[in-house]
What does this fold into?
Amino acid sequence: MMVANHFCRINFRLILTIAVANLIVAPLASSRAGAQRSAMTPEQVAVLRNQQQRQSAASVPPVRAPFELTAQETQYRNQVLDYWQQSSDKIKKYSCNFRRYEFDTDKVAHRSARTNQLSAASIGVGELFFAAPQRGRYEVNEIWRFKAPPKSDSQQADYELQDKQLFREKWICDGATIYEFDFASKRLNETQLPPEMQGANGLANSPIPFLFGAKRDEILNRYWVRVVTPKGTQGEYWLEAYPKKADDAQNYKKIEIVIAEADFLPKAMHMYGAQYDPKKGNFASVQFEFDNRKANAFNLRDFFTRPQKPMGWERVQVQPLTSSPERNAEAILQQNANR
It folds into this structure.
């Protein structure tokens, strides 16, 4: 399970940069998998991913529809998705700040005595930038880890800021190449995208074709979607999406998206791990809150260019991706053997 969770995390953050406009869905992984990530090389990631996919491919059951909708519910859902599509099609540039909450009861099981809210194992604070068709930049500049429960019910849990020189995340995609900053190893990894993941095609081929440029039919082709706005909620639309494809279902169980009525952009998103099951005490999930959302009226010209290598770092040319994860792993291993 740790290996599977690790790959959910790595794969999604890769795709997050590839098609950041598709809604920023983070990997569904445990916090301890995140701690391992910084110590792993791309070659090790490829090996583990290859092993995990081979082991799980034969055991994944068919994905079944988790609910049924009435004709009226279907019509309303389609109206929401259509309006979301119309709004997102107009966005050519986008930026926002975000807070990312990662929940992992294996590490942190504390709950508020007053609200019963589970405390996050870690909290990330960062920024997100996008320019059509698929240039993106994703940065987590602060990571806070749970330190201790509150001393009283009226206080909040204590979190400790991690060393910014080691605990940061930064990805840039110029539409053809992904640049990943590995701060712990001081490596700037460059990975070329295959043609089917470049340009506008990357939106449809990414795990979550949700936000900019995505079409209602593309979303419904990959997800069972329904509107689940809580009764009495004003100014928001809540959507719940379950993956239809087994490959996606291995990575996450479902996604909840909260769309703000004012700009019809996501203001929050909660992604649940594939093994999420409150009855069994598994609450693995990642939640994002997006604020200071801006669209179109700013200049991002220099945000997505090939970055300079920081002093003392190594620039690593990672084997170009293909449409086959197994071929990716084998090619990276061969490249490493030839060094």
